[in-house]
Amino acid sequence: MLLARSLGVSVLVVAASAPVRADVVGPGAPVVIEAPIVVDTARGSGLSVSRSDELASAAQLLDPPGQVVSTPDGQGWYAASVAGGFAVTYDPAQPAPPDVRSVVDQAVGRWSSVLDSSGGPVNIYVYWGATHPVTGEAYPNGLLGMAGPTGLVRYGGSGPWYPVALANQLSGSDLQPSQAEVMVLLNSRYSWHLNPSTNPPAGTMDLFSVVLHEVGHGLGFLGSADDAHLEVVDAFAYDELIETPTGPLLDHPTPDSFLRGGPLVASLGAGYFLPIYTPSTWAAGSSFSHFDESSTSGGRAGALMSPFLTSGERADLDAAVLGVMRGTGWPTRGAVSPATPVLATPTIGEGGFHVDWTVDLSSAAGDRLLPESASLVVSEGEQVERVIPVQPATGGVDVFDLPGGRTYRLVLQFVSAGATTESNSQSVSLPDVPAAPANLGVSGSGEQRLLQWSPSSSASPILRYDVEAKIGSAAFSMVAAVDAAESRLTVTLGLEPTVYRVRAVNSSGPGPWTQSDTVSLVVAPPAPAGLRQSVIGNRLTLWWAKVADQV
């Protein structure tokens, strides 16, 4: 921590013509203060960069209008990018050789190809050497590089602090005239791999990956927590993306309790989250401002901004990293399209089907954005039957109430920044519902009766039979679900008239009902009471108490 802090203050002074200081221009105007720096080291020393499988060619990296302008003489970056865009300046006291400048320019150009910097300049000042540019002391073993924004900005005295490069875009101006927005220090003592078009061989550190990572910190992949402490009132834009298991970290009454050991995740947008690095012991320069290594290793999503790099490893931009950048406020270039989902084979269930999808958010999928919205389009032939909004991160959806006996085509659409990508298509054939049961009748006498029917015909296996009854004036209600192998049910009659109905159910849902005749239980009346007789002559008269009518 002391190393990171002392290096950060010294370098901030060198990176600009004067130290950046707090400057309140007026109510609602931007406030600019000094920014922290992230120190990155090799594996075992707390490094901040990570893995990937491949990179685009150099020709793809430099894409106007975000073209990188390299000015190795230490002058002219302001003029190069005053209208917006990325520019790189190399410190003249420790000049980088041409092959190093080429890699750095291409890494910066990689960011330029995905982030829209037309609102204001993004000037990056680069130091290349084996010693600290101010103290002259040799860099400690394991240190690959350091980086950070040269200033932080917020508006009106409240809200989050933005790195000045992002604040330039949000304000459409240059808030630090004649000063760089991002500062990067690179240790020249390593055996660097200097070809962005190839994977680094074992024993070398990939300079392209390291520069990509360091610039990412300078652009805003950077939290405000320091020495396991976070001041909510001085939170960075990045901090607003961090969540605990119960909600946003900044809303928690004790945010510091999560900074050692977590668990914390970063919101990537669209319901996607990725754990961030929170070791049980605070690691200065690594904790909080990186994705978690165990969740991103092996070239998975977020690998570029995880805390470790070993020799022979390569990392690149991906949808997870861009999700954080967009979450902090960075606009992206129009050429960057949403990630492409892959639909799995649907599974047919009762009343419909279920379909899952996966999304490759790693760098292997190229420059992709997380979707802002998503829809499953269900079609029959050329006719769209239904467009179903879905939550992309859920990875699956159940679809019900489509007519059976038809084949449907499924396509998942992701939409982001006005662009749409479509998944592969899948088809699902829903069988027709079963026919109505025939020959439904009630037989027997007394309270216990036998309800019987003939099995239904069905294009797919019968799952069960539903039996309902209507007693008196009440509505139909469920009596039983009968196994598909059975076609009878013993029922108990009451005194009120009762109507039964039965239907078959298969994977497409229930078929039509078959209804029985009205049946009721007839009970013999009791014997008359009070029987009396009278005989007059040859005439016999009988009388008794009247019995109430019963049905």
Could you characterize the architecture of this molecule?
- With 551 residues, the protein is α+β, with helices and mostly antiparallel strands.
- The strands form 10 sheets. A 6-stranded mixed β-sheet has the order 2-6-9-5-4-3, sandwiched between helices. Strands 21, 22, 24, 25 and 26 form a 5-stranded antiparallel β-sheet that branches. Strands 29, 30, 32, 33 and 34 form a 5-stranded antiparallel β-sheet that branches.
- It is elongated.
- The protein starts with a helix and ends in an 8-residue tail after the last strand.
Number of continuous helical runs: 8
The quaternary structure here is: single chain
> Spans with pLDDT under 50 lasting ≥5 residues?
1-83
Which percent range fits the helix content? 10-25%
**Helix/strand class:** alpha+beta
Described by the principal axes of the CA atoms, the overall outline is elongated
Query: Looking across the biggest beta sheet, what order are the strands in?
Result: 2-6-9-5-4-3
Rounded to the nearest angstrom, the distance between the terminal CA atoms is: 93 Å
Total beta strand runs: 36
Kindly provide the radius of gyration, computed on alpha-carbon positions and rounded to a whole number of angstroms: 37 Å
- Report the sheet-strand fraction: 25-35%
Query: What value does the average pLDDT take?
Result: 79
Main sheet characteristics: 6 strands, mixed
